[in-house]
Predict the 3D structure of the following.
Amino acid sequence: MCEANVYLAQDGRDEEVLVLEAVDQILPEGPGSWRLTSIFGEQKMINGQIRSMNLVDHRIVFETSAD
Amino acid sequence: MCEANVYLAQDGRDEEVLVLEAVDQILPEGPGSWRLTSIFGEQKMINGQIRSMNLVDHRIVFETSAD
């Protein structure tokens, strides 16, 4: 299975906090807002922008904006 | 390997054109600009915003803005 773990970092900081594991689907829901859905059907909303995606490492990092 | 195929659609249209296969890394490079890197090291730049990501299906779709 090719799901990814989604992390959130504060803008400009290195620390990344796990938001949801085993994410299958990521859909935008308005400016800077995203709906994550895991392979288990769990959903979470996240606000921010994408900092990096490394799919082979199963790793997607969002960051909150400084606004 | 958990790479994905990246597609680009024109804003508001359903047709999705393959941009790059077997993408490992996606990094933002300025507003609406992204650097894709495949597992083979091939790189492409893409302009647009994310429409949808379905990782289990290895499918990431960007769309160009209507601006």
User: Anything to note?
Assistant: Residues 4-63 of chain A form one domain. The CA atoms of residues 53 and 60 of chain A lie 4 Å apart. Chain A has a mean pLDDT of 94.
